[in-house]
Amino acid sequence: MVGETTKFLITPSTRVIVDATVGQGGHAEALLGAAPDNSVLVGVDLDDDALRFTAKRLERFGERVVLQKMNFADLNEKLPARFKGEVDALLVDCGISGLQIVTSDRGFSFDREGVLDMRFNIAAGTTAGALLGRIDLDELTALLREFGEGRWAKKIARSILSERDSSGLNSTLDLSRAVKAVVKYKPAKSLARVFLAMRATVNEELESLSKLMESLPELLSHGGRVCVITYHSLEDRIVKWSFRRLSGMCVCPPGLPKCSCGKVSAFKVLTPRPVTPQPEEVSANISARSAKVRVAEKI
Known about the structure:
By secondary structure, the chain is an alpha/beta fold. The protein contains 14 helices and 7 strands.
């Protein structure tokens, strides 16, 4: 979705760009290439490998690039002071990078042997292995249901904990085997959901996204735009309702006698419906098939 995000975010007046999930720098490179020569991009990521890779990739842009190790949830507190409130273009891509998937010892891939880590920042936080080592059946079942596993959730959770208690969950393939023991026909979707649930919990992804959305009014300049790419319904729901609230739409629960959410119009939503990838992009990159792009502008 590089073309779509660049088209939405970059205008002749763009001066400060923030790529809040810079990854391997593909979006950042395109944004810098399309932006005016006097613009600056701040690239944020928690992954040291990604930051090193991107530093080399964007080296030709010189001082136009500032890379910073940071959780995007902390942008409002940790973004360099000269950029706060001056961000003209903010990109948030909620996916993980190809570099993380193919690096087996990071634990993100369900079909590669690796340690059950799954942390974006390998220097801090709890690993997926540690999480699975202490979680109980009810907690794991609820977690898998939250991430879409539905009627299979309890059976999968029971199988995972049985594997843990008998042989131990020592690798990604141990976890995969526990899922496949229950879902024998086309298990890929269940595997993806289980690994997503673990990864999102380990990295507090939904909580971080919610916090970032709340800080948009302080981060963006007048006329500044934010573009968020999500890959599953929980992320998309957070973005959709945050944009509704920021644009002045009532987000009160149905049935209340009058509005109590304190709606204020601070943003204009530029994508009434999410933008999805074209078929040719999905053919070239199957991981893009579930992507949804939503864009809003501060007014």
